[in-house]
Automatic annotation (TrEMBL):
Pfam families: Lactamase_B, WHD_BLACT
Record PANTHER family: ENDORIBONUCLEASE LACTB2
Top-level taxonomic group: Bacteria
InterPro entries assigned: LACTB2_WH, Metallo-B-lactamas, RibonucZ/Hydroxyglut_hydro, Sec-metab_biosynth-thioest, WH-like_DNA-bd_sf
SMART domains in UniProt: Lactamase_B
Protein name: Glyoxylase, beta-lactamase superfamily II
Lineage of source species: Bacteria, Bacillati, Actinomycetota, Actinomycetes, Geodermatophilales
Metallo-beta-lactamase domain residues: 47-208
């Protein structure tokens, strides 16, 4: 598409740890300790980030996104609890994907802590379904429940008293996130980016990858521009003759590892659904054409 520039990722000039170089455990601010799970992959980047949130000296923390039910990860989380001299009083989950939610019920039972999420299946029979906008008073601090649908329908972020926002997979520490299909929704995703931007976050603590502290608003702006750029790339690929989802992925994602093409296909389908709703493309199963 003429006139659409490749958006520049502001993080390219930031000093972020190289992939694989994040510390296993890090105190990000007095309220927050992060523990990195040992599950790196092209989709989970360095691995899943588990967050311990609590007022120093309260003796309590909330665990956000326990991650995979992995014994080494559990040992690292328990060591971080001991270092904070705190016990876990609740388990919160940003969304239902297993790399964030798998350990929620078993660890909730182990810590005798309730599990809370937007999805009743994640919260379990004894858990709590969180409502958008509610404020949770826990562990000597407060967490605001921020609805952020898009990556998945049930996705939540949590705003801390410090102004930092735990964003799950809504925003990643490196690269961009995936809008899943058919569950995800590009329009909802864009509105969620705007919602988090409007909070004026002091930092973004992501589900994967390093913390984003230098200019969180610039990253959110880049994410919105990136979605618009993907739309223009898909339309340009169709002008060049791509007529199926697979052909579009092969064209637009030629430069990324094939391992992430299945995820790219989901994002492509989600974007095509938006373009079709806008009347810019016509979908017929896996076939797609310009109107
Ligand atoms: Zn994830």
């Amino acid at each position: 598409m003429p006139g659409v520039r490749i958006p520049v990722d502001p993080r390219t000039t930031w000093e972020l740890p190289a992939p694989g170089a994040m510390p296993r455990t890090a105190d990000l601010e007095p309220l927050v300790t992060r523990v990195l799970a040992p599950n790196p992959s092209p989709m989970t980047l360095d691995g899943t980030n588990t967050y311990l949130v609590g007022a120093p000296g309260s003796g309590q923390v909330v665990l956000v996104d326990p991650g995979p039910d992995d014994p080494a990860h559990l040992a690292a989380v328990e060591a971080a609890l001991a270092a904070r001299d705190a016990r876990c009083v609740a388990v919160l989950v940003t969304h239902h994907h297993g790399d964030h939610a798998e350990a929620a019920l078993p660890w909730g039972a182990r810590f005798d802590a309730p599990v809370a999420a937007a999805d009743a299946r994640v919260a379990g029979p004894e858990g709590r379904v969180l409502a958008p906008g509610e404020r949770l008073a826990l562990a000597g601090t407060a967490l605001d429940v921020v609805p952020t649908p898009g990556h998945t329908a049930d996705h939540l972020a949590f705003r801390l008293e410090s102004g930092a926002v735990l964003v799950g997979d809504h925003v990643l520490g490196r690269g961009t996130s995936v809008v899943t299909h058919p569950e995800g929704d590009v329009l909802a995703y864009l509105a969620s980016l705007r919602r988090v931007h409007d909070l004026g976050p002091s930092a973004l603590y992501c589900g994967h990858g390093p913390e984003l502290t230098e200019d969180p608003g610039a990253v959110l702006d880049f994410y919105r521009a990136h979605r618009a750029f993907r739309e223009s790339q898909l339309l340009a690929a169709m002008v060049r003759g791509a007529g199926t989802v697979d052909e579009l992925v092969a064209d637009v994602y030629a430069g990324v590892p094939r391992e992430v093409w299945p995820a790219a296909a989901q994002s492509t389908r989600a974007t095509l659904a938006k373009l079709a709703a806008d009347g810019h493309v016509v979908m017929d199963g896996d076939r797609v054409r310009l109107p």
